[in-house]
Structures are given as C-alpha cells and as structure tokens.
Amino acid sequence: MKAAQPAPIRLALVEDSELVRLGLRTLLGLHAAEIVIVAEAASVEEALKVIPPHRPDVILLDMRLPDGTGVEVCRRLLALHPSRVLFLTSSIDDNLIADAIRAGASGYLLKDIHGEELVRSILDVAAGGEALDAAVTASLMRTLRGSVPVSAANVSTTERRMLALLAEGKTNKEIASDLGIAEKTVKNNFTALFNKLGLVRRSQAAAFYIEHLRGEH
C-alpha cells in the first residue's frame, strides 16, 4: 500500500506589492504538493483581519507595509496562533531585524534570494528550523556588539561547546548526543544561557558565538 503524502504547508502571504505577490504565487504554484497559499494580505490591517481564521503553518511577511511594519503583524499574529514567521523583504535595518527576531520570527531573507532557495527556506522553517540571509546575520552581529553586555568570560566551557554546536545548525537532540547529556538538560541550559546573555532566538545565540567566541582558545 502506497504511503499517504503529507499535507502541504499552509502559507499566508503578506506583501503590499501586487507584482511581488504574483511572482510568489507563480513560484509556489510550482510546488503545490508541498506549499499552498491559504491567505493573502497587503497591509497590517488586512493581515490581522484575514489571516487568523486560516491558522497557517508559515507566514511569509514583508517588513515595510503601507500602514506599519511586519514586526507588528508578527507579534500580534503569533499571540493568536503559533505559526512560523519568515520575513521576505528588501529592508536591511539593524533595529528592525533585531525587532523581528525578538518578536518571534524564525527567519529573515532578502528579496534577491533565488526562488528554489526560498522554497527550501519555507520548508525548513515549517519543519522547525530557521533561515537567515548572510547580510542579516551580519546585521545581528552589529546589534549584538552594541547590546550584549556579557563578556565571553561569563560563558562556561560547556556553554561554549553548546553554542558552537548550535551555530553549526544542530538541534537540541543532536547537541545532547554530541555532549553525552540529556536533551532536557540542553534545553534547560540554553534557557538559562539565553537569559544570562539577554537573547531570545537561537539565531541570536549563533550570531553571539560567531562574533564573540569563535576562534578563542
């Protein structure tokens, strides 16, 4: 008996440019077995009205909208339903990028991304991963330089090893296996470490490691 195909990812699209929406519909239409657009909006107000009833798996979100920013949409929609939020924008603003991550975004990509790479990023984010453009990672580093008061000396050897593995893209389960400890211990240690460093997202922690700890002996 042939195994049933998994249900496609339910995606909501928030983008004020009709031309960009058309392009995204065309691209994602080529992957209809994996991703289906269930709602579209062109403004903050419209997004908050039309998206919640659909309870999408992923929200693909522009940053700059006619009546506000995507950060507001991200924060308010995530308060209603635990979707995964992926920003797709042309805006490289250090403060807005940091605000997006703090608001709960799972990824931040720029609009010059190749179509197939965008599709892979949507699939990765839907599966629980994160997606950051290289320029966005650099922006997070700049933000961390000015906002993280904790020095590398305050990070223990075990915490450094955990951060190094996290920066490689490993999950808590994989980190636990590599370190020979329980997955719950890894989760608890990361919670305490994030609080100590003033971080919210794993992507911030990876940027902190790259900027402050990688290469130290």
Description:
With 217 residues, this protein is of the alpha/beta class. The protein has two domains: 9-141, 3-Layer(aba) Sandwich (Rossmann fold); 149-213, Orthogonal Bundle (Arc Repressor Mutant, subunit A). It has ten helices and eight strands. The chain has helices spanning 18-29, 44-50, 70-78, 94-102, 115-126, 134-147, 157-167, 172-179, 183-197, 202-213, and strands at 9-14, 35-41, 58-61, 64-65, 68-69, 84-89, 107-110, 131-132. The model has no long low-confidence stretch (mean pLDDT 86).
Topology:
Elements: E1 9-14, H1 18-29, E2 35-41, H2 44-50, E3 58-61, E4 64-65, E5 68-69, H3 70-78, E6 84-89, H4 94-102, E7 107-110, H5 115-126, E8 131-132, H6 134-147, H7 157-167, H8 172-179, H9 183-197, H10 202-213
Parallel strand pairs: 1-2, 1-3, 3-6, 6-7, 7-8
Antiparallel strand pairs: 4-5
Helix segment tally: 10
Structural class, by secondary structure, is alpha/beta
The SSE order reads EHEHEEEHEHEHEHHHHH
The main pleated sheet reads as: 6 strands, parallel
CATH superfamily annotation of the largest domain: Response regulator
User: Which value, in Å, is the CA radius of gyration?
Assistant: 18 Å
List keywords for this structure.
2 domains, Rossmann fold, Arc Repressor Mutant, subunit A, 217 residues, six-stranded parallel β-sheet, 50% helix, alpha/beta, globular
Explain briefly what this protein structure is.
50% of the residues lie in helices and 15% in strands. With 217 residues, it is of the alpha/beta class.
